[in-house]
What does this fold into?
Amino acid sequence: MSDLELERKESMTRAEAAKRLSAFAEALASGDKIELDLGGTSVSMHVADHVRTEFEVQVDGDEIEVEIELSWSTSGRERSGGHQRDESASRAREGRRAT
It folds into this structure.
């Protein structure tokens, strides 16, 4: 598979965001291919049985950002380490933000 990066940013209601995340979660749990609609562009992909996850919360004044990242190998072999984040590193970042 060639390198590809697609990104779409849009504003929606909390209920619309929940509906989209629920549909994604249902497709992920089903084991079928996941179809992502990115406004005019659609991407279909198979998700490996094992995925690496990353959850990040950033608070900057009155702005809150939550990122959920899933990654997996398409080669059938799971990468070791990779995106695993050390909990102490997260705490250290939080301490820097508080000062």
